[in-house]
Specification:
The chain has ten helices and eight strands. It has 371 residues and is α/β, with parallel strands linked by helices. It has an eight-stranded parallel barrel, surrounded by seven helices. Strand 7, helix 10 and strand 8 form a beta-alpha-beta unit. The radius of gyration is 19 Å and the shape is globular.
Length: 371
């Protein structure tokens, strides 16, 4: 990762905002880890939330070779009739001059990658470094890139680079421990950016909150109301694509009557590692089963996995063991069984984070596996 040695005044301001966002992300993951093992024990699963994977096919791949067996692009993306994903190749892209928002209907072997525009020390990346990263994501065959928030000039730097490579954008409104009121300015930022940009071209969906209910940053009712508020603001600004939220599958199951109607699509963050009962070779089957459960939880809605992967370093969580070889096996399994519905986490290791429980928080970078 790179960072310009000369920071402009705006970059220094960006660093202040980025630092706040970083702390918010760290709080999110620390609290997630404090609760996930209990949530994914067999006793908890019996009550509702997690469909356990008792077996899964071994994924055979070479540690010396990146993932390469990607089929050719089909002529058109096909809307799947069920949450399982066919291995028919990466989704076709609409022409660059198509100004209509692209709808998230994919059937290929992988779809999106998460991206945070931070240096290893937690500063905002220079626009040239962001452009290089986005070009790399596009070259790996992804069709979309997910941002969690609007900080570090992400709307300008990431969006400009994405449009030049015909990448779709999954925009985010981040809700922190400060609550919904502190998140509202991000809605205005997105609407203003679109107005200045002249259109919403390439915005595939907008995600309001990232596990906000799970982390007690908002109640289910508060989040549903905020999603509706954001949707109205975006629609008034000319956006007609999907607006959603993302939680863990068990949170969506517990609050289905409130959260499912609030979302245009059903989206969850699905991490097999935090289950503790799933090995790397079972990660793909686990993700696929959770997408099935999500489809049952929010019937009639398209389902998507907005954050998934496996750590390359850290301590084991039950039978879930971090490691470079295990990460390769897990990512390949997810790609084959649910890649067309999944956003891989993350492009590179997030060295600016605290290591967190099991010492895995910095080590989810998987972009190199798609070279």
């Amino acid at each position: 990762m790179h960072f310009s040695t000369i920071l402009s005044a705006s970059a220094v301001l960006g660093f202040s905002l980025a630092s706040n966002i970083h702390r918010k992300h760290e709080e999110l993951h620390t609290e997630r880890h404090a609760n996930l093992f209990e949530r994914h024990t067999p006793e908890a699963s019996a009550n509702s939330t997690v469909r356990e994977v008792t077996s899964a096919p071994e994924i055979l791949t070479s540690s010396a070779m990146p993932i390469q067996d990607i089929p050719a692009h089909p002529p058109k993306p096909v809307k799947p009739s069920h949450p399982e994903v066919a291995n028919s190749g990466p989704p076709a892209k609409k022409p660059a001059d198509d100004a209509k928002p692209k709808k998230p209907f994919h059937s290929g072997s992988y779809w999106a990658m998460t991206y945070s525009p931070y240096t290893p020390s937690g500063l905002c990346k220079a626009s040239s470094d962001v452009a290089s990263d986005v070009a790399s994501i596009a070259a790996k065959g992804f069709s979309s890139i997910r941002l969690y928030s609007t900080d570090c000039s992400g709307l300008t730097n990431v969006a400009t680079a994405a449009q030049s490579h015909n990448l779709n954008l999954i925009l985010g409104v981040y809700i922190s421990a400060s609550g919904i009121s502190a998140a509202r300015p991000q809605i205005d930022e997105i609407v203003t950016w679109a107005a200045n940009n002249g259109h919403w071209k390439g915005v595939e969906m907008i995600v309001v909150g990232n596990e906000a209910v799970f982390n007690n940053f908002a109640s289910a009712e508060e989040l549903a109301s905020f999603v509706s508020e954001a949707r109205s603001a975006f629609k008034n600004g000319g956006y007609d694509g999907p607006v959603t939220l993302t939680e863990t599958v068990d949170i969506l199951s517990k609050h289905a009557e409130v959260l499912c109607p609030a979302s245009d699509i059903a989206a969850a963050n699905i991490h097999a590692f935090f289950n503790g009962q799933v090995t790397a070779s079972g990660a793909g089957a686990f993700v696929a089963s959770q997408l099935e459960l999500l489809a049952e939880t929010c019937p009639g809605k398209e389902v998507y996995n907005l954050e998934t992967g496996w750590p390359s370093k850290g301590s084991k969580n039950g039978v879930a063991i971090p490691g470079s070889w295990e990460q390769r096996i897990a990512v390949e399994g997810i790609r084959k069984m649910a890649g067309g519905k999944s956003t891989f986490f993350s492009f590179v290791d997030d060295e600016w984070k605290e290591e967190g429980e099991w010492g895995v928080e910095r080590s989810w970078g998987c972009g190199q596996l798609f070279d």
